[in-house]
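cron nightly-structures :: item 1 of 1
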Amino acid sequence: MKTKQVLATLLIVIGLVSLLWGGISWTRKEKVLDLGPIEATKTERETIPMPPLVGGLLLASGVVLLLVPTRARA
């Protein structure tokens, strides 16, 4: 795959995720306490909120990158 196609695919995927879920989120586990055999962990959910306008722009730019042909070098 060419770099342009990979970039366009990434833009489309990120745009769809932000439109469907309102952002990108993940879960992070952090060790809070470790006393020999006793261990305590904490789970946090972190989110990067993205407005629908940004998601739409990312999706549209990815589609445009896929559809616009590349120029031939002379």
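cron nightly-structures :: done
Helices lie at 3-21, 52-67.
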